[in-house]
Amino acid sequence: RTVEPLEYYRRFLKENCRPDGRELGEFRTTTVNIGKCLCSITTADGSALVKLGNTTVICGVKAELAAPAVDSANKGYIVPNVELPSLCAERFRSGPPGEEAQAASQFIADVIENSQMIVKEDLCIANGKLAWVLYCDIICLDYDGNLLDASVFALLAALKNVQLPLVTINEETGLSEVNLKQKNPLIIRKHPVATSFAIFDDTLLIVDPTAEEEDLATGTVTIVTDEEGRLCSVHKPGGSPLTGAKLQDCITRAITRHKEVKKLIDKVIKSITPK
């Protein structure tokens, strides 16, 4: 495994399995904790922790009030940020965000935009005067591959946990008034779920790759779908090309995975909702 890691993997792949015992199309155990069970970030307006095997990601959403942009007077803002601190894996260093963290942040921003999971007009309180800004901080605590799937899942779970207070503008003073006693859940229009694949030897597809599998792969691809089976995004940062048939296979598997993740998130939200 140390001297010839690729050959080591190929021996398993020939038998349609992987060194960790999974089949090629099998995902690692997935768990999600939402909201108050995360005592570490009680200051967030919404939070979630997702584990995908050993990969652990936490997402906190902070809502603040701001004036809308001049050219988007009826829209709020969503600001995603992915952090890969040195504590999550040896490959990352302290300091400014590296290339992988920046690419992940851009990917999350694209998913939010393309899926229309949150319509920015819904974040507007008073046209041209006041809107919500949602700061979505996604921090990897333990990195073992497939960061994108875990990040999208954590983001969705945290956003579904957000409760925004009622805000009105006093017509006499022109100042905003916040009613913390009356809160409403954030309007989530779509539920995007990411499903990632590693490509081995230009032809073989395996789902939910570990960090080791990502390093040995000849390419990766991430498919994002919503609950209607609609394709929201295809993220393929170079590597081996995919045939139309292979890509369709990925999309089909991604739609199946979406149902599993949505079922899991609904179950957790139901368990923490007051009776």
Q: How many E-type strands?
A: 12
The average pLDDT is 90
Determine the strand fraction and express it as a percent band. Answer: 25-35%
Query: How far is it from the N-terminal to the C-terminal residue, by CA?
Result: 52 Å
Structural class: alpha+beta
Low-confidence stretches are none
Q: In CATH terms, what is the architecture?
A: 2-Layer Sandwich
What is the CATH H-level superfamily? GHMP Kinase, N-terminal domain
Radius of gyration: 20 Å
Number of discrete domains: 1
Overall 3D shape: elongated
**Biggest sheet architecture:** 6 strands, mixed
Task: Write a structural description.
This protein is α+β, with helices and mostly antiparallel strands and 275 residues long. The protein has a single domain (21-270), classed as Ribosomal Protein S5, domain 2. It has five helices and twelve strands. The strands form three sheets. Strands 1, 2, 3, 4, 5 and 6 form a six-stranded mixed β-sheet that branches. Helix 2 crosses helix 3. It starts with a helix and ends with a helix.
Name the descriptors.
single chain, 275 residues, alpha+beta, Ribosomal Protein S5, domain 2, six-stranded mixed beta sheet, four-stranded antiparallel beta sheet, elongated
Brief overview:
GO terms for molecular function: mRNA 3'-UTR AU-rich region binding. With 275 residues, the chain is of the alpha+beta class.
